[in-house]
Amino acid sequence: MANLQKSISSPQELLRDKAWARWTALVLLASAMFFAYIFVDVLSPLQEYLQSTKGWDPSAYGRFAGSETFLNVFVFFLIFAGIILDKMGVRFTAILAGAVMVAGGFINYYALTDSFMESGLKNFMDDFVNLPDTWWNITPFYDGMPASAKLSAIGFMIFGCGCEMSGITVSRGIVKWFEGKEMALAMGIEMAVARLGVAVVFLGSPAIATFRDNISVSRPIALSVLLLLIGLIGFIVYSFMDKKLENEMGSNGEVKDDPFKISDLKYIFSSKVFWIVALLCVLYYSAIFPFQKYANNMLQCNLGISAEAAGRVFFVFPLGAAAITPLLGNFLDRKGKGATMLIWGAILMIICHLTFAFVLPATRSAVIAYSAIVLLGISFSLVPASLWPSVPKLVDNRLLGSAYAVIFWIQNIGLYAFPMIIGAVLAATNPGVENAMDYNYTVPMLVFASLGGLALILGIILKALDAKKHYGLELPNIPSEKSLEAEVESAEG
Fold first, then answer.
1. Phi, psi for 377 (deg, rounded to 5)
2. DSSP secondary structure letters along 283-333
């Protein structure tokens, strides 16, 4: 029976069938995303220092934070990235993405150096795109925005193109190496490693920026750019493994998918369940990643502690998520219940943000802060661990790169808008407050909680649709012995 199953699934063993090979590929992919996530949030714990040394008020910081996704959203770069991925493959797209991240990271670093402040480029940036700071100005730039924030935003948006391209490429690569195996576990581990990057930032960035009591916000960025370069090298090494796998797949008689055509995108855009997953993704991630940009300062204001101390409190969020995500991924591989996990993740997120809005300011309790952040970490594990492995169940394999790209593009709309929305809300609800330690975060936290409420509704709808249409979202990723026997019997018949 076992030999028959093997003969049906694969005439000969592929590189991805060897455990050491597929897990090595995962290490290379996950390491690159680890370094990318370090860069994404390297300035998040430094909002206080950005305001005191560079003149970045909440509006400037919010515009910078949202700029990461500007080109992905408004120039549709992510859509093009998905098409590039489906047309050119994982190897080419991974190396391109890594190079773009390094380029954007270096620009962001230069913008915060003393050399930039003394250059003619600073004067140019002072005169660059000075649009009114009003609701219709969707660009990251406005009149009065510091020159360093403008150039940082340009670098961050270039980095964002590479980072999001890396995200869809890594997801596609994991499916390529782990389909039919420990796919959810592999995606969970990749996300866990990336979350560790956030943990490293919240502990290390303030310490590096204030090394020997000499405040420099460019110092941690310099180190993170070096790590991006190491990630690019990792992508290059991975490409050799990927090439060998593709050669084996082409030589062992494996049936190839029909080639990707742009017109095939209609099958993605016409799927109701795909849009529900995409909207759930944007709502959930908009309540997490923009929150990370403000979490450190929120904890400072509510607990009356330093940036370094707030970083130590928030450290348990990505650390807890990193610890739990692989366990949930393994559960999803073997037991299923993906749609149910999405619902519970949204419920926990609502509870956490309401705690930050009302309970924490009233009690100023570090214990409550830690408890809420731990719950948010569990929530952050439940949703990604179940969301991303579910996409291959909804979309044909040859469209998978474009499907991930569309989801990431929709997600990026929220990631672009909400840092600016929260910055504007924070400024509007704290008129006349100039000290970054005195902000009231009640209304911003309520905005995040409302996103969780909408995500909960969509999660319930998704589970109902799965029960009706049998997409398999509640089923395990690794087939049971019973299902394998049924497949073999069907093949024999």
1. -65, -40
2. HHHHTTHHHHHHHHHHHHHHHT--HHHHHHHHTHHHHHHHHHHHHHHHHHH
Lowest-pLDDT choice from 296-305, 332-341, 392-401:
392-401
Q: Is 261 left (phi over 0), alpha (psi -120 to 50) or beta?
A: beta
User: How far is the CA of 381 from the CAs of 21, 64, 189, 474, in angstroms?
Assistant: 26, 27, 11, 17
Least confident of 367-371, 373-377, 378-382: 378-382
Distance CA 154, CA 211 (A): 27
Nearest one of 382, 353, 228, 249 to 294, comparing CA atoms: 353
- Model confidence over 387-436: pLDDT tens digits? 777 787 887 777 777 787 788 788 888 888 898 899 889 989 999 888 88
Q: Please give the Cα distance from 321 to 191 (Å, whole number).
A: 9
Report d(CA 359, CA 365) in Å as an integer.
9
Task: pLDDT band for 197, please (50, 70, 90 cuts).
Answer: confident
Contact 159, 100 (CB under 8 A): yes
Q: CB count, 10 Å around CB of 283?
A: 24
Cα separation, 434 vs 456, in Å, equals 36
Distance CA 367, CA 355 (A): 12
3-class secondary-structure state, position 99 = helix
Per-position DSSP letters for 18-67, written without gaps between them: SHHHHHHHHHHHHHHHHHHHHHHTTTGGGHHHHHHHH---HHHHHHHHHH
CA angle 270, 275, 281 (to 5 degrees): 155
Q: What distance in Å separates the CA atoms of residue 287 and residue 353, rounded to the nearest whole number?
A: 9
> Do residues 314 and 206 touch, judged by C-beta distance below 8 A?
no
Contact 105, 220 (CB under 8 A): no
418: which 2 tokens? 């909400």
Q: What is the pLDDT of residues 176-185, one digit of tens each?
A: 888 778 877 8
Q: Which fold has domain 21-248+271-486?
A: Growth Hormone; Chain: A; (1.20.1250)
Task: Report if pTM > 0.90.
Answer: no
Closest CA to 217 of 56, 343, 326, 414: 56
Which residues, 6 or more positions from 327, have their beta carbon under 8 angstroms from its beta carbon? Answer: 188
